[in-house]
Amino acid sequence: MSLTQTTPMIAPSILSADFSHLGLALQSLEDAKADWIHIDVMDGHFVPNLTFGPPVIKALRAKTTLPFDVHLMIEKPELWIEAYREAGADGITVHAEACVHLHRTLGQIKESGAWVGVSLNPHTPLSAIEEVLSEVDLILIMSVNPGFGGQSFIPNTLDKIKRLTELCKARHVQPIIQVDGGVKVSNIKSIAQAGAHAFVAGSAVFKSNDVNQAVAELRKQASMSNHSV
Ligand code: DX5
Ligand code: ZN
Question: What are the backbone angles phi and psi of residue 9, rounded to the nearest 5°?
Answer without folding.
Answer: -105, 125
